[in-house]
Amino acid sequence: MPEGDTVHQAAKRLHTALADQVLTRSDLRVPRYATADLTGRRVLEVVPRGKHLLTRIEGGLTLHSHLRMDGSWKVYAAHERWSGGPGHQIRVILGTTEHTAVGYRLPVLDLLRTDSELRVVGHLGPDLLGPDWDPDLALRNLLHAPDRPLGEALLDQRNLAGIGNIYKSELCFMAAATPWLPVGELPATVPHRLLTAAKRLLEANRDRPARSTTGRRDQLLYVYGRAPRPCLRCGTPVRSAQQGDGSRDRPTYWCPRCQSGPAPNGPTPGTASGTTRRTN
């Protein structure tokens, strides 16, 4: 699952290549838009909204895309060879005289009126990297279902937009809580610190080629993808399990010593109930 910083980087690349340029090639390889032709129209801007990309085009049109797990946008110079994947994985091509943007494996692609964008992004909570960021609203959203596991609440884009599976695991580690701990069982000051950390991390990583949450060059992430290697703080082997509703389970990582709360096979030892480490 892409993170908000990844989508922000994709939007920046697309905007740099396409904005204020007239489309000389338009190929939407989705049956419902097979006859749509955007050539001759000027691209106005490309903006991210959470994990969604909105390419706004002259004439009041928006091309909406979502990367989900495997999608990507690649930008090539006009005569550069495409290397993002085989041709059958291409879902959209937008070309100008200087650049070609190619969308691979995009599971979501919509062409809609710009004034109807709320139809596809109106459900999103405050965007951690957007001008609409509202920490108070995000906090209320996060806390509105106190029995919900923390990991699931952080991933729910209706609460706040931009957190993916990597940040979910990393933020839970920073809060010293397992991703299965109910939100309502967090100490009172932790949710606010968690959101502050989330915004700081996404802002710090939105222009970096390699994402880091630790501030270390040798180890970029605390727990994500590290099972069964030792925890960077205590040396206990990091564990992994699936978390989700069954239909959209996500790999989740945590340290059974540094993080308190329930786990898939029962409670983990962690710190004493009601205490957490500092959210850094």
TrEMBL record:
Gene3D superfamilies cross-referenced by the UniProt entry: 1.10.8.50, MutM-like, N-terminal
Cofactor (UniProt): Zn(2+)
A GO molecular function held by the record: oxidized pyrimidine nucleobase lesion DNA N-glycosylase activity
Enzyme class: lyase
UniProt keyword Signal present: no
EC number: 4.2.99.18
GO term, biological process aspect, one: base-excision repair
Catalysed reaction equations from the record: 2'-deoxyribonucleotide-(2'-deoxyribose 5'-phosphate)-2'-deoxyribonucleotide-DNA = a 3'-end 2'-deoxyribonucleotide-(2,3-dehydro-2,3-deoxyribose 5'-phosphate)-DNA + a 5'-end 5'-phospho-2'-deoxyribonucleoside-DNA + H(+)
Keywords assigned by UniProt, alphabetized: DNA damage, DNA repair, DNA-binding, Glycosidase, Hydrolase, Lyase, Metal-binding, Multifunctional enzyme, Zinc, Zinc-finger
Keyword Electron transport annotated: no
Domain of life of the organism encoding this protein: Bacteria
Region (Disordered): 234-280
Low complexity composition bias: residue spans: 260-280
Family label: Belongs to the FPG family.
The protein's name in its UniProt record: DNA-(apurinic or apyrimidinic site) lyase
Organism whose genome encodes this protein: Streptomyces triticagri
Organism phylogeny: Bacteria, Bacillati, Actinomycetota, Actinomycetes, Kitasatosporales
